[in-house]
C-alpha cells in the first residue's frame, strides 16, 4: 500500500490552508448585523476581586438586553462584550488592554475598579487612539495619576465617578456628626490611591487642616505590609479618635488585628476601598460592625437604568436573588458603564471612526442608575462626577448592612439611620 | 523612649517570623550546600495546604499542622530523592537553576488551583489577643510565633548535635564520599534533611497564613527576608539564623519608626552593611 503524499497533494493542501481565512472572513460579511466589539478589563481575581464580584450578573443581564442589537444611523449593530481579567495587577491590566486593542480589535474599551485597572487601560487606549470609558476610581488619581493637564485633557479617554473632594466632604461631615475629638490618623499606602489621598495639597491633608482636623500621617507603607505597630504607636501618641485612609482589605485586616492586639481603639474608623464589601466586613467578624465608609451607590439611591428602566433597588435585589449574595456598590456602576456605551453607540456619527466615537462620548448627557453623566460639566475635561454619600456598617439580623448616615453632600439621596460610635 | 523600645520589641517578634522562614534554608544549605530558590513558594504551598485542611475538616489552623507538617515533609523527601539529588554535584549552579524552575512551576500551579484571590487562615481570638508588658501591648500571636521560632531552632540544634540523624547530617556535610564509605546513604540523608526543612516550612506557612493574607505570588518576597536572615546570621549556623531574623526585623521596625516608607529599605540596608563588614555573616559556621 502506497501512502506517501505527492508534491501536488502537498502544494494543493498548502494552497487550501492559505486560502481558507479569506473564504472564512468573506462568509462573515453575510451576517445580518455588523458587530461592534466592546472590551472590558476588570479584576476578576486578586486582591481587587470584590469589585468584580457582580460582573457575571451584570454582563448576563446586558447580553440579554443587547441581544436585539443597538441602532445607529438606521443600522443595527450587535454588541459583543469581551471581558479580560487584570488579576488586580496594573501591568497585567495594560497587557490585556493591549491584547483587546491589537488582537481583538475592539471598537470601544472599558475598564472599572480602582486606578490600578482604569489608568493602565486608559493609557493604552490613548496611545492606540481607541475610545475608552472607565469608572469606579476617584477622578484625581485617574486624571492626575496619568499626568493629565486640565487645560488640554485627553482625546480618547473618559471617566465617570466622584472625586477626593467628595470623599473629604463626606468623611468630615460624618466625623463632625460623631462629635469625637478632631484628631485623625491617616493610613495611606504607596500606590496610586494612597499617594493621591495623602497628597499635601490635592489630597486629604489641606482640607482637613482647613476644617480644624489634626491629621497624623506617619508616611506611605508598601501594600501587603506585615507590621503596622509604628502607625499604631503614632496614632496612640497623638490621641487619634478617628482613623481614615484608603487600603486594600488584607492591609486593613492586618492593621485592625494589630490595633486590637496593641489596645488601640478609635471611636470612628472611616476607610475607603477596604470596607466597601459585605464579604470584607464578614471576614472581620464582630470587629467589622460600626466601621464607616463612603457610599457611591445603594439600593436606596433614587435612580433608574436608562436601558431597562429598572430602579437601583430592583437591580440590587435581582443580584441577591440570582446569587444569594448581598448587594455591592460596584453593581450600579458596572451597569451604568454599559448604559453609557449603549448611549454612545446609538449617537455616534460614524462608528468606524474612533474620533467620531470619542466625540459622541464627550457629548454624553444622560441619566443613569448612578445619577447624571455629563462630560461637559466635569471639574476637568474627560471627567464627569456622580453623587456621593457616606454611611456605616450596622448589625441587621444575623448579618451587617450598610446604612447611609450622612447625605449633606447629595441631599437627593435619603438617609437610612444615625451614626453609632465604635466600642 | 518607650515607643523606641516598643519598635525594637515588635521588630524582635517580627524577626521570629523571618527566622522561621529562614530556618529551613539554613538547614539545607548547611547539610548539602543547596540554595533553594523555591523556598518562599514552598511556604505559600504550606499555607494553602493549611487552608485546604481547615476548610475541609473545619479545624483550627494549629490542628491542621498535624496534617500539613507530615505532608510537607513527604513532599520534601520526594522532591529531594526524585529531583534535586540528580542535580547535586561539585557545581552549585544546576541545583540552583532547578529550584528556580520549581519556584515558577509552584507559583503557576497554585495560581491555577487556588486563583489569585487573597486567602487567610482564621485563627479565632488568638489573632487579636494581647498581653501587657511594661506599658507595651504585645500580641499573643507574634509572641507565639517568636516562641515557636526559638523552639524550632533549639529542636533543630539538638537534632544536629545530639542524635544519630544529626551525626549523619554533619558527616555528609563535612565529606560526602567518606560518609558514604562509613555506610551512610547520602541520597537518603539528603532526603531526610529536605523533609525536615519543609516540615519547618509548614509551620512558617501556617503562622504566616494566620498573621496575614497570602496569594500565590507573594512567596518570592518572603524568600528575600529568609535569605537575608540566613546570610546576616552566617551560613549554616542555626542560632545565627535566629539572630539574623531578629536583626532584620528590628532594622525594619526602626526604619518604619523613622518613616514608614523606609521599612523594607532599612532591612535591606542592614543586610548590605553586614555583607560589607562581615561577608561570611555574623556567626559563620564553626568547623568541627
Summarize the structure.
The complex is a heterodimer of chains A (423) and B (288). Chain A has 423 residues and is α/β, with parallel strands linked by helices.
Model description:
The complex is a heterodimer of chains A (423) and B (288). Chain A is α/β, with parallel strands linked by helices and 423 residues long. Chain A has 2 domains: 35-162 and 300-384, Response regulator (Rossmann fold); 165-295 and 388-406, Response regulator (Rossmann fold), CATH 3.40.50.2300. Helix content of chain A is 39%, strand content 21%. Chain A has 14 helices and 17 strands. Chain A has helices spanning 7-28, 55-66, 90-102, 115-128, 139-143, 164-178, 192-198, 205-210, 229-238, 249-261, 278-284, 312-323, 330-347, 354-362, and strands at residues 35-42, 70-72, 75-85, 108-112, 132-135, 157-160, 183-189, 214-216, 220-221, 242-246, 268-272, 292-295, 365-368, 371-374, 383-384, 389-396, 399-406. In chain A, the strands form 4 sheets. Chain A has a 7-stranded mixed beta sheet with strand order 2-3-1-4-5-6-15, with helices on both faces. Residues 26-30 of chain A have low confidence and may be disordered. Chain B is an all-alpha fold. Chain B has a single domain (2-277), classed as ABC transporter involved in vitamin B12 uptake, BtuC (Orthogonal Bundle). Chain B has 11 helices and 2 strands, in the order H-H-H-H-E-E-H-H-H-H-H-H-H. Chain B has helices spanning 2-32, 39-57, 61-87, 93-114, 140-162, 164-174, 176-181, 186-211, 219-233, 238-258, 263-277; strands at 130-133, 136-139. In chain B, helix 6 (164-174) crosses helix 8 (186-211). The longest helix of chain B is centred in the first third of the chain and has 31 residues, at 2-32. The radius of gyration of chain B is 19 Å and the shape is globular. The mean pLDDT of chain B is 89.
Amino acid at each position: 500500500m502506497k501512502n506517501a503524499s505527492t508534491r501536488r497533494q502537498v502544494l494543493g493542501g498548502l494552497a487550501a490552508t492559505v486560502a481558507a481565512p479569506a473564504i472564512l472572513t468573506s462568509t462573515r460579511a453575510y451576517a445580518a448585523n455588523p458587530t461592534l466589539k466592546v472590551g472590558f478589563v476588570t479584576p476578576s481575581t486578586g486582591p481587587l476581586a470584590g469589585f468584580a464580584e457582580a460582573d457575571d450578573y451584570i454582563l448576563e443581564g446586558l447580553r440579554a438586553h443587547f441581544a436585539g442589537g443597538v441602532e445607529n444611523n438606521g443600522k443595527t449593530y450587535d454588541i459583543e462584550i469581551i471581558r479580560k481579567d487584570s488579576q488586580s495587577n496594573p501591568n497585567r491590566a495594560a497587557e490585556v488592554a493591549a491584547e483587546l486593542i491589537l488582537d481583538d480589535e475592539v471598537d470601544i474599551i472599558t475598564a472599572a475598579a480602582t486606578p490600578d485597572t482604569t489608568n493602565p487601560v486608559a493609557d493604552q487606549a490613548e496611545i492606540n487612539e481607541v475610545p475608552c470609558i472607565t469608572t469606579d476610581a476617584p477622578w484625581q488619581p485617574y486624571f492626575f495619576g496619568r499626568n493629565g493637564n486640565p487645560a488640554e485633557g485627553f482625546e480618547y479617554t473618559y471617566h465617570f465617578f466622584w472625586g477626593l473632594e467628595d470623599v473629604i466632604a463626606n468623611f468630615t461631615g460624618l466625623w463632625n456628626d460623631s462629635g469625637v475629638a478632631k484628631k485623625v490618623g491617616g493610613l495611606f499606602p504607596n500606590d496610586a490611591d494612597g499617594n493621591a489621598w495623602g497628597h499635601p495639597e490635592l489630597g486629604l491633608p489641606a482640607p482637613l487642616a482647613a476644617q480644624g482636623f489634626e491629621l497624623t500621617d506617619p508616611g506611605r507603607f508598601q501594600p501587603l505590609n506585615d507590621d503596622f505597630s509604628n502607625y499604631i504607636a503614632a496614632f496612640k501618641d497623638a490621641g487619634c479618635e478617628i482613623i481614615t485612609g484608603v487600603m486594600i482589605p488584607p492591609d486593613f485586616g492586618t492593621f485592625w488585628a494589630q490595633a486590637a492586639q496593641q489596645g488601640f481603639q478609635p471611636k470612628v474608623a472611616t476607610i475607603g476601598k477596604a470596607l466597601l464589601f459585605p464579604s470584607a466586613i464578614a471576614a472581620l467578624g464582630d470587629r467589622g460592625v460600626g466601621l464607616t465608609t463612603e457610599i457611591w451607590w445603594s439600593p436606596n439611591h433614587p435612580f433608574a437604568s436608562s436601558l431597562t428602566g429598572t430602579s437601583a433597588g430592583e437591580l440590587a435585589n435581582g443580584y441577591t436573588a440570582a446569587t444569594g449574595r448581598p448587594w455591592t456598590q460596584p453593581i450600579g456602576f458596572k451597569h451604568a458603564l454599559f448604559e453609557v456605551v449603549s448611549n454612545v453607540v446609538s449617537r455616534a456619527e460614524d462608528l468606524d471612526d474612533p474620533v467620531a466615537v470619542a466625540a459622541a462620548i464627550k457629548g454624553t448627557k444622560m441619566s443613569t442608575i448612578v445619577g447624571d453623566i455629563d462630560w461637559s460639566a466635569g471639574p476637568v475635561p474627560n471627567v464627569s462626577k456622580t453623587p456621593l454619600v457616606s454611611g456605616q456598617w450596622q448589625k441587621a439580623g444575623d448579618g451587617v448592612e450598610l446604612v447611609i448616615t450622612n447625605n449633606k453632600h447629595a441631599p437627593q439621596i435619603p438617609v437610612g439611620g444615625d451614626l453609632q460610635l465604635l466600642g | 523612649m518607650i515607643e523606641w523600645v516598643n519598635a525594637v520589641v515588635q521588630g524582635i517578634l517580627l524577626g521570629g517570623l523571618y527566622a522561621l522562614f529562614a530556618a529551613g534554608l539554613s538547614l539545607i544549605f548547611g547539610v548539602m550546600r543547596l540554595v533553594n530558590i523555591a523556598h518562599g513558594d514552598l511556604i505559600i504551598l504550606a499555607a494553602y495546604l493549611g487552608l485546604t485542611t481547615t476548610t475541609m475538616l473545619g479545624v483550627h489552623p494549629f490542628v491542621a499542622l498535624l496534617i500539613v507538617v507530615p505532608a510537607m515533609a513527604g513532599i520534601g523527601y520526594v522532591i529531594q530523592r526524585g529531583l534535586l539529588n540528580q542535580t547535586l554535584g561539585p557545581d552549585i549552579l544546576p541545583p540552583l537553576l532547578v529550584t528556580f524552575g520549581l519556584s515558577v512551576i509552584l507559583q503557576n500551579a497554585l495560581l491555577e488551583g487556588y486563583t489569585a484571590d487573597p486567602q487567610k487562615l482564621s485563627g479565632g481570638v488568638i489573632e487579636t489577643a494581647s498581653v501587657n508588658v511594661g506599658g507595651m501591648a504585645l500580641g499573643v500571636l507574634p509572641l507565639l510565633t517568636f516562641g515557636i521560632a526559638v523552639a524550632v531552632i533549639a529542636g533543630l540544634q539538638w537534632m544536629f548535635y545530639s542524635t544519630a540523624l544529626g551525626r549523619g547530617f554533619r558527616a555528609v556535610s563535612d565529606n560526602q564520599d567518606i560518609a558514604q564509605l562509613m555506610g551512610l546513604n547520602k541520597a537518603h540523608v539528603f532526603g531526610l534533611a529536605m523533609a525536615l526543612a519543609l516540615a519547618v516550612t509548614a509551620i512558617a506557612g501556617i503562622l504566616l497564613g494566620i498573621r496575614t493574607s497570602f496569594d500565590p505570588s507573594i512567596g518570592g518576597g518572603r524568600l528575600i527576608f529568609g535569605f537575608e536572615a540566613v546570610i546576616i546570621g552566617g551560613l549554616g549556623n542555626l542560632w545565627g539564623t535566629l539572630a539574623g531574623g531578629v536583626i532584620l526585623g528590628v532594622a525594619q521596625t526602626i526604619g518604619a519608626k523613622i518613616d514608614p516608607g523606609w521599612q523594607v529599605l532599612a532591612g535591606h540596608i542592614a543586610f548590605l552593611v553586614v555583607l560589607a563588614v562581615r561577608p561570611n555573616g555574623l556567626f559563620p559556621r564553626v568547623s568541627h
